[in-house]
């Protein structure tokens, strides 16, 4: 699988956009992983599965949001993308507050 080479800034922007869509509930973790693997890394499922040390079938299941992948497997597949699996509030209002509080803290720290 071959994609055009993205600048580091373009890669970061694409990653952030996928994460925003995930946090808004527009995409699943599997959809984000599939997009980033293909569009950002330009890797096939087989190549990526070998890279992270899981079977291609497990990777396929994760990308299709099928089965019950372990936390260890989820961490393995997201690690090359600079991401880790974590806990987020289920309620959108609470998630919005969390992000807003973090933005405010970051802005205050930058001063």
Give the SSE map:
Elements lengths: L7 H16 L5 H12 L4 H8 L3 H8 L7 H8 L13 H19 L1
Helix pairs in contact: 1-2, 3-4
Protein name: Helix-turn-helix transcriptional regulator
Organism: Halomonas urmiana
InterPro entries: Cro/C1-type_HTH, Lambda_DNA-bd_dom_sf
Structure description:
The chain has helices at 8-23, 29-40, 45-52, 56-63, 71-78, 92-110. It has 111 residues and is mainly α. It has a single domain, classed as lambda repressor-like DNA-binding domains (434 Repressor (Amino-terminal Domain), Orthogonal Bundle). The longest helix has 19 residues, at 92-110. The mean pLDDT is 89.
List the main descriptive attributes of the protein structure presented here:
434 Repressor (Amino-terminal Domain); about 110 residues; globular; 6 helices; mainly alpha
Q: TL;DR?
A:
This protein is mainly α.
**Rg:** 15 Å
**Oligomeric form:** single chain
Distance N to C terminus? 44 Å
The SSE string, one letter per element, is HHHHHH
Approximate strand percentage:
under 5%
Domain HTH cro/C1-type: 33-88
Protein name: Helix-turn-helix transcriptional regulator
GO molecular function: DNA binding
Pfam families: HTH_3 (PF01381)
